[in-house]
Amino acid sequence: KQEVTQIPAALSVPEGENLVLNCSFTDSAIYNLQWFRQDPGKGLTSLLLIQSSQREQTSGRLNASLDKSSGRSTLYIAASQPGDSATYLCAVKGSNDYKLSFGAGTTVTVRA
Amino acid sequence: KAGVTQTPRYLIKTRGQQVTLSCSPISGHRSVSWYQQTPGQGLQFLFEYFSETQRNKGNFPGRFSGRQFSNSRSEMNVSTLELGDSALYLCASRPGKGGTDTQYFGPGTRLTVL
């Protein structure tokens, strides 16, 4: 069974600092990995999707890397802003069952 | 394009009752997935439908069921509600088959079981 772990569980940084969020997974047989953002009481917003054959994806201030062999992904958010405050979730889709397995998330607070 | 919509947004039920939740995917999307989110278990996959057929199922009891209609709209039903079924139920849609598509989530239905 795929286990997805996100460290740290919470993070508080001053505005302008770069954010580094980590995600690890136990089964390297993945189809893709997706990073989401969730605001309190709301649904999820997709940030980046990395195919298993890719090493990284970038969108604006966001960059996500994937090392399938070591079972790790990292989300970098450059020059953080208070609007980046949210919970960030990592999800892995298995290549055998196509099920999406989520981590517990990292709650980020960016202080103005 | 309108996003994924879920109705109702909030629901209060008592133990033993049953409930039906509805999800309308983004226009043109044929795949709909359902997830349960609780503080203790996090986000867990319930099931996925494509072209009215269940393609995948998570590890939930048979009290949880779903279906998809020809217009891709989906419903999820939970029978004999238990206190532990209190959760945010999220629906997600994507264009089609395969694992390459980004999932787009709705705002969720907050179910409270008393």
Helix content of chain B: under 10%
Overall geometry of chain B: globular
Number of strands of chain B: 11
**Major sheet summary line of chain B:** 7 strands, mixed
What structural class should be given to the helix and strand makeup of chain A?
Answer: mainly beta
Mean pLDDT across residues of chain B? 93
Strand content of chain A: over 45%
Tally the beta strands of chain A.
11
Q: How far from one another are the termini of chain B?
A: 37 Å
Q: Helix- and strand-based class of chain B?
A: mainly beta
Strand-helix topology:
The complex is a heterodimer of chains A (112) and B (114).
Chain A: E1 4-7, E2 10-14, E3 19-25, E4 30-38, E5 44-51, E6 56-59, E7 62-67, E8 72-77, E9 86-94, E10 100-102, E11 106-111
Parallel strand pairs in A: 2-11
Antiparallel strand pairs in A: 1-3, 3-8, 4-5, 4-9, 6-7, 7-8, 9-10, 9-11
Chain B: E1 5-7, E2 10-13, E3 19-24, E4 31-38, E5 42-50, E6 53-57, E7 64-68, E8 74-78, E9 87-94, E10 104-105, E11 109-113
Parallel strand pairs in B: 2-11
Antiparallel strand pairs in B: 1-3, 3-8, 4-5, 4-9, 5-6, 7-8, 9-10, 9-11
Which descriptors apply to this entry?
heterodimer, A: 112 residues, mainly beta, 5-stranded antiparallel beta sheet, 0% helix, globular, B: 114 residues, 7-stranded mixed beta sheet, 4-stranded antiparallel beta sheet, 53% strand
What does this structure look like?
The complex is a heterodimer of chains A (112) and B (114). Chain A has 112 residues and is mainly beta. Chain A has no helices and eleven strands. Chain A has strands at 4-7, 10-14, 19-25, 30-38, 44-51, 56-59, 62-67, 72-77, 86-94, 100-102, 106-111. In chain A, strands 2, 4, 5, 9, 10 and 11 form a six-stranded mixed sheet that branches. In chain A, a hairpin with a 5-residue loop joins strand 4 and strand 5 (44-51). The mean pLDDT of chain A is 94. Chain B has 114 residues and is an all-beta fold. Chain B is 0% helix and 53% strand. Chain B has no helices and eleven strands. Chain B has strands at residues 5-7, 10-13, 19-24, 31-38, 42-50, 53-57, 64-68, 74-78, 87-94, 104-105, 109-113. In chain B, strands 2, 4, 5, 6, 9, 10 and 11 form a seven-stranded mixed sheet that branches. Chain B is globular. The model of chain B has no long low-confidence stretch (mean pLDDT 93). The chains are: A mainly beta (112), B mainly beta (114). The A-B interface holds A 31-32, 34, 36, 41-46, 49, 51, 89, 91, 93, 95, 97-105 and B 4, 33, 35, 42-45, 48, 55-56, 58, 88, 90, 92, 99-100, 102-108, 110.
